[in-house]
Design a protein that fits this description.
12 strands; single chain; alpha/beta; Rossmann fold; Alpha-Beta Plaits
């Protein structure tokens, strides 16, 4: 792991592919997932970057693609949702996946649990279910213990994030999304750079490094597989603007 980051990420991505997390990277985190604010300039900036990189740009989010598109126009962009469980290419074609049969019962049980714990928010996705406790940080232990027990009973996997715990099928993460995109045109043969802020982005940092690229950690420094670091969402926007204008 790395805590001695280089000062700034690359000033040019002429030979690279760029993969961008959404929450905490392109937009500031909010108390609830639907309380975020998206800069009006962001969609145009992403389109300019995609053109500059000849299409080698993808948004890789923990949100479902359907939810992500409530806030961000992804037309003409490659996008992955649900931490790698959904994958859509820039031409609009999907890599099909089937939701696990266990998920319906799990969602019901998670919903009943959250009703008894004030401040918790349940987010159901096509292939997973998450419990956010940003409004009830004192419930972290209860949430983690409940979700761990449910994971054992259901055969699903637990994924921890910033003030959120998620149950999802095993075998896919943001790193897998990067690897899948890198097998496709126009990403194939380029150098992947992944930008993200959360623990869930570490898989993508590792994947990018394995494929000859690297990761950019957003936010406070911590033990990470990333090679570079940016202070926050505003610093990411400034860096992306420089890349788009280079």
């Amino acid at each position: 792991m790395n805590i001695a980051y280089q000062t700034l990420p690359p000033a040019s991505l002429a030979d690279a592919a760029l993969f961008l997390d959404f929450d905490g990277t392109l937009v500031e985190l909010a108390e609830t997932p639907d309380a975020i604010r998206v800069s009006p300039q962001l969609p145009h900036l992403l389109q300019r970057l995609a053109q500059r990189l000849d299409g080698r740009l993808a948004v890789v989010s923990g949100r479902s693609i359907q939810d992500l598109e409530r806030y961000l126009s992804c037309r003409g962009l490659a996008v992955s949702g649900s931490h790698g469980l959904e994958l859509r290419l820039a031409d609009g074609s999907f890599v099909p996946l089937a939701a696990p049969r266990e998920l319906d019962g799990v969602c019901e049980e998670v919903g009943r649990f959250a009703e008894c714990e004030p401040g918790l928010l349940v987010e159901e996705k096509p292939f997973s279910v998450a419990v956010h406790y940003r409004r009830a940080p004192d419930r972290e232990r209860q949430v983690r213990e409940f979700m761990a027990r449910l994971a054992v009973e259901s055969g699903l996997s637990v994924q921890q994030g910033k003030m959120v715990t998620e149950l999802r099928p095993a075998g896919a993460d943001k790193g897998d999304a990067v690897r899948a995109f890198m097998l496709q045109s126009p990403f194939a043969g380029s150098r992947p750079i992944f930008v993200g802020d959360d623990l869930t982005d570490e898989d993508a940092f590792h994947a990018a490094a394995e494929l000859g690229g690297g990761g950019v950690l957003v936010g406070h420094g911590r033990d990470s597989a990333a090679q570079w670091r940016l202070d926050g969402v505003c610093a990411v926007a400034d860096w992306l603007e420089r890349l788009a204008s280079a």
